[in-house]
Every structure is written in C-alpha cells, then in structure tokens.
Design a protein that fits this description.
Elements (H helix, E strand, L loop, with lengths): L3 H15 L12 H25 L3 E9 L2 E9 L4 H19 L1
Antiparallel strand pairs: 1-2
Helix pairs in contact: 1-2, 2-3
C-alpha cells in the first residue's frame, strides 16, 4: 500500500491535469491535496493490521528437532489462523485490479 497509493494518486493527478481527451487544461492540484489523497489506503491498511493484531495476535511457537545428533530449538512467531494472509490478499489484490483500470 505504501508503494501503490502514491502511484495511484500520481496516475489520477496526471489524468486530471491532462484530461481524458489528451488536451491539456489549466488545472491546479496542490501537493498537499495529492498527499491527502494518498492517506486513505494507508489508513485502511493500518486499520486491517490493528484489527488482526487484536483479534489474532502473533504467538510464540517452539519446535525442537534432532538431526545427526544435533539438538536444535527454533522459536518463531505465528498466527493461529490465516486471516491476515487472506485479508491482505483480498485488499492488495483489489488495489492491483483497481490499478489495472486506472
């Protein structure tokens, strides 16, 4: 989202400045307005991450294995469900689909 949001706003800004017909028009879009248009997708991403962190926080997972007489102990963080993965695929996928039509 941090990469796609400014790119989409830049495409929209060029489209507004040049116009769909290709004839340049005298239009001004300030840098502040452009910046403010990049914030909603980033805010949506932050809300998704916050909701998943509250609903399904990462938990410590331990695993121990013995390979060739060597004892290894691995500690990783992970989620109990695939909710974050599925939500991110849907959100990022929809942004990419939207980008294809801009």
């Amino acid at each position: 989202v941090m990469t796609l949001s400014p790119l989409f706003v830049k495409i929209w800004r060029i489209w507004k400045l040049v116009g769909a017909s290709g004839i340049p028009r005298r239009t001004q879009i300030s840098h502040m307005k452009t910046f403010l248009y990049t914030l909603p997708p980033i805010g949506i991403q932050a809300i998704i991450l916050l909701a998943i962190s509250v609903a399904d926080p990462p938990r410590q997972k331990d695993s121990t294995s013995i390979d060739d007489g060597v004892l290894t102990h691995h500690v990783t963080c992970g989620h109990e469900t695939n909710a974050l993965f599925v939500t991110e695929i849907i959100f990022e996928g929809s942004l990419i689909v939207i980008g294809c039509f801009l």
